[in-house]
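Input record (one chain):
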Amino acid sequence: MELMKHEQYNFRFNPLECEACGGHCCTGESGYIWVKYEEIKNIAAYLELSVEDFATMYLKKVKHRYSLKEKKLAPDNFACVFFDESIKRCSIYSVRPSQCRTFPFWEQFKNNEEEVRKECPGIV
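The corresponding structure, as predicted from the sequence alone:
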């Protein structure tokens, strides 16, 4: 297995660690899981829903953007609505939003390797 790397980041990522992790990047404090219209269309099609039905069931509008809804797991612990707690995995993995696809190579972690190491056991 080849480690994933990005030229602007000092760390590398081992995606094999996702199996053992249990979804740390899909759970935790409340936040936003941003989705663009093309992603909304793809996820809706994957779930065999109209864009309208998908939006009603799974999206929340935040100013001029859309985020996937969250579910509350515990007082200070939330999960993406598509996180399957029984198998600790994303239930829409093949059509997940780009925010999820690009983790852990997020701008906020570029100069904060310590923070991303706390969140992701796959950082090497």
